[in-house]
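Let's practice the habit of predicting before peeking. Look at the sequence and jot down your guess about where helices and strands might fall. Then scroll down.
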Amino acid sequence: GLLAAFLSVAIGTLIGITAGHFRGWYATVAMRITDWFLVMPTLVLAIALATVLSRSIWTTILAIGVTTWPTTARLVRAQTLSVESRPYIERSRALGGGHGHIMSRHV
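Done guessing? Here is the structure:
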């Protein structure tokens, strides 16, 4: 359960931070994929994934982690948009902070 939750949080955080930071076409595509995963029944998708892959505990972890990340991604994206509107992010950009620096240090 812990590994599945870690995988879900890792995928959701990665998608959410990048979609909140890089706006435009990337955010649109990432959020549409997230919306698609939100409307798909989680149990059906997890069973389909478990059917295609070999039977093991790692398949179960992967199936749960891959199907439960969209809510985390939406939450992280909203928080990223909130944080990026603060003045210290603008100061960091003005001082030459790149995308990686801003996403890893400030957001």
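How did you do? The mean pLDDT is 87.
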